[in-house]
Amino acid sequence: MLTREDDVLEAAEAWRDSGREVAIATVVETWGSAPRPVGSHLVIDADGNFLGSVSGGCVEGAVVEEAAEVIASGSSRMLEFGVADETAWRVGLSCGGRIRVYVEKLN
Q: How many CA atoms lie within 13 A of 80 on its CB side?
């Protein structure tokens, strides 16, 4: 995982400039316990390669899948993930947090 959000954004720009289709996922809201803060980014290309992090666990896998659809359609999406305390660890949101992630195609 890259340690600076600027690194992720620079990678997104480099991927796009090299001809790859790219989406960027950004944490726009958190409530309770969340693994990554607001402003965290995940960059995803059309082949499913990714850099950065918006959460971890199953949430991150779901964001990568949604990003593929955003790349194909060109339509942005707002995703929301929230879990009860008893299922939090299984999906990667420790202590039952909630996050909202905006996914957009980079043009």
A: 4
